[in-house]
Amino acid sequence: MGNRTPDPHLPEVHLRPPANWINDPNGLVHHNGWYHVFFQHNPQAPTHDNIHWGHYRSRDLLCWEPLPTALTPEPGWHDSDGCFSGNAVSHNGRITAFYSAYRSGERWQPVAAADSDPDGRHFTKRPELLVPQAPDGVTTFRDPYVWNDGDSWRMLVGAGYADGSGAALLYESEDLASWTYRGPLHRRADTDPAAPLVRTGEAWECPQLAVYPDGRALLLTSTWYQRTGPSHVVAWSGQGDGDRYLFNAVDRFDHGPDFYAPALLHTPDGRWLLWGWSWEARDGSCPEGAGWAGVLTLPREICLDGEGRPRQAPAQELTGLRCGAPEQAIHTAQPGTETVLGAVGAAADICLFIGLGDDPAWGLRIVTGQGATEYLDLEIRGSVLTVDRGRASADPSAHIGSYRMPLPEAVPGGIVHLRILLDHSIAEIFTGSGEAMTLRFYPSGNGPLTLLSRGSGADSAVVTMEAYALRALGEG
Question: What pLDDT band is residue 2 in, cutting at 50, 70 and 90?
């Protein structure tokens, strides 16, 4: 979108401004026929400083129109140090944005608001803070999320208590102006014997709540630690009404290392869409030299399965980015062999169906550089999908690591569906059972990527592939 910088790692299918810093998606809302996406943005440098709200809108999630900066820090105002994360609602013909009025050096931030003109382009800040103080015992307080609940409005604010537990705090209003504190909607310590493998943070950032027509609900929280900062995202599914919800055991929401602060949008046709922030996974001065840092993920559809667990898939509109005839292959992967399935460009949509044998194992190697010395490895084994980026880049500043996500369909005789969305330096991987993994990688070359099928088990696997090139996001 816009003029691309010389950096070949800059994504062209994922939403972000042409240059400088971006982090959390904010204020996702459908207003007067348009999808609006706001985001944390430093318009002057690729560093987390001087945070504004950037703004795009789209009618179809494919062509995006850049709009004027929505919120700008003002000297002498509550938000003089930055307009931090929040959300927005469409009400009475306008967009009302709710955000954290950042105060440098403080762990709790008051809640502020601004109202747009009818077109949703220009915003006027309200003179009074909506929530000027955090409740007693709360040491971390930020990131409001507001939604309509029948005749009233509700607000969640991410929080952390002095005892090290995280929480989503609930407020209620009749008019979007005066807010009454109702207590924690949900609160939990960082570790829990019921879910010892999933830590939930000393504080919760960017709480988001999706309520489905049958009364089921999904709470998303981003885990934060005082010493190390943001970590990962967890999901709590449950059942309830208004300010009373009973949440089930916690789940890891995205299994990759580079996904944080997702935000929800309720569509006119009743779907829940989600965008997240994917940060840079390279050290040193790389982002500063490139002139950009961070990207929003592609939009995902979020639903609950029959057991109430969250399931993710790329938004159905994204098939509109496919261009040209697909690269197709049908192949039987024999044990101990490697076979080229095809080649794709740096922006691609890869769909794979793997029919497993008695030994349910198979691998895909995405060769990212010349000479097969740089590659991203995916391996199915033991009902788990492992993704290893340890050799994906020759750049020593690129982060490495191996990551796992559940793949319960990978059983003897099972069929596995994988969808991999690649865009220069980001991969979003989805399974047919609704799990997702986001990670960044930085190939040293800028040529096509070669897809290698690897027979890694003791039995053969039948692989069907369809891979599409993706066109860059257009500007409307």
Answer: very low
Residue 132 has pLDDT above 80, yes or no: yes
Structure tokens at 15: 């939403």
User: How far is it, in rounded angstroms, from Cα 274 to Cα 299?
Assistant: 5
Beta bridge partners of 154: 147, 172
Is the pLDDT score of 283 beyond 80?
yes
CB 417 within 8 A of CB 353: yes
Q: The pTM is what?
A: 0.96
pLDDT of the residue at 106: 84
Beta bridge partner(s), residue 149: 152
- DSSP state letter for 214: T
- Where in 279-345 does DSSP place strands (E)? 292-293, 295-296, 300-304, 310-314, 322-333, 338-344
State the DSSP string of 398-423. Answer: B---EEEEE-TT-STT-EEEEEEEEE
What's the confidence (pLDDT) of residue 32? 97
What is the spatial distance between Cα 52 and Cα 55, in angstroms, rounded to a whole number? Answer: 10
Q: How far apart are CA 354 and CA 349, in angstroms?
A: 16
